[in-house]
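go over this record:
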Amino acid sequence: MVKEIFLVIEASTSEPSIALIQSGRVDGDDEVSTSAVIASAILHTRDPITGARSEPLAPEVQKLFQDSDVTPDQLSGVVCASGPGGFTSLRGAAAVAKGMCSSLSIPLYSVPTPVLLVASIQLHEHDRYVVAQDAGRNESYVSVVEIMGEPKGGHTLPRVVGDVSIVSNELLQEFSSNVNGFLLNSNESSAPHTSSAVGNSDLEGNLSEDNLSAVQPVNIAACASRLMPSILSDGVVDLNAWEPTYGRLAEAQVKWEAQHGRKLPV
């Protein structure tokens, strides 16, 4: 059995998290057969007094290594959630992930945040999920995730279908009543520090506090252990070219790119 360790970084939700995951595969076979969480942590991103956000990602990653007795040189790769989500958080996570991969000469993998959110609940083949993430300004990033059975190994394989949309929270309530599937809502305005899921397959009626059932906070990064076969089979991303899916660019970046006529490098 060949065992590999991966660092997973998720910084695009209201509860950013990190995890060390060990995956195993039979020697000579590329198919991952087992995955287990070695260590994980939910990051404390709000000052307990002021409530202001902070991003202590690099020190938290270092602490995770120390607490788990794993050293960075044991890593086989880094998995970074690609968003959508907050610009500053995603950019910081990408910088840490790319920096580690570059210094350690290991590959970088990415996984869409809506896929990780869906993986935090029980997966069923051929289900469809609508994932809503807080986008600020009383709006949400809305993605559709479908789960299909993978031909090899029988793994459930979530995939984002179509483009991410930015929808007002008022319209989201009307939109959710017309979806045949589940709705996973990670908006802080609906349920602070939790994710909420609607389990009614018909989703009759509008989304409201009355039909949201709160789910205990989970380490979203650790949920990647359920998806490692598909994450690794998707292949590595280009370390120089890859950027997260911000959903909405910061105004400062928009001005910089307009002035320089090119994308702001990550």
